[in-house]
């Protein structure tokens, strides 16, 4: 239970425990729970959607949902997205890219990445129509599944850092449990969810491999990059397939 609370407190603003200092081992053990925390984020977003549905404006509803997720998560992963975008798209050496990612200043690629992600999520959610509950569960759950895979299956690029704690102390069975908990929503959503589940994993594997090729491994910042890009990809893919008539919900 302690590891779950650590993960919940790290990935969201939810505080169910008064403890504010944790050991490195606690961070590592919390990795197993990340998809479950994704469920919780998704359920909270479903609650927000239920309350704002009467607004009747798809674009406004989509934007409010995107902002709501940033509020729930504290925009921690979005910060990683910005830092990663500045480093990964800088065109510099691995060493220099890592230095850029560590710099607290946000560059042009960081700003552009946030704008693109927020806009893509907003327009995708605005186009999801009555299937929004489905998408709101799938996005954070599958995003955090790819986060677990990134932590457990790829080398860490730095000799130290908070991301290193997750990588070094995670459970040996973390990926197995993450797969199991991340696929459970298929009980409610069926084959449609399994399609997105499979696509998310393939996309995440490609993205992680690209990152490792660019900077020699993953970092705490790229964890945020992976999660945010996966969420946007899931929202976009869902709308693309639905609007394209590939399958219907």
TrEMBL record:
Top-level EC class as recorded in UniProt: transferase
Entry membrane topology: Multi-pass membrane protein
TM regions (residue ranges): 32-52, 59-78, 106-136, 174-203, 223-242
Pathway where it operates: Cofactor biosynthesis; adenosylcobalamin biosynthesis; adenosylcobalamin from cob(II)yrinate a,c-diamide: step 7/7
Superkingdom, taxonomy of origin: Bacteria
Family statement: Belongs to the CobS family.
Protein name: Adenosylcobinamide-GDP ribazoletransferase
Organism per entry: Dialister invisus DSM 15470
Gene label: cobS
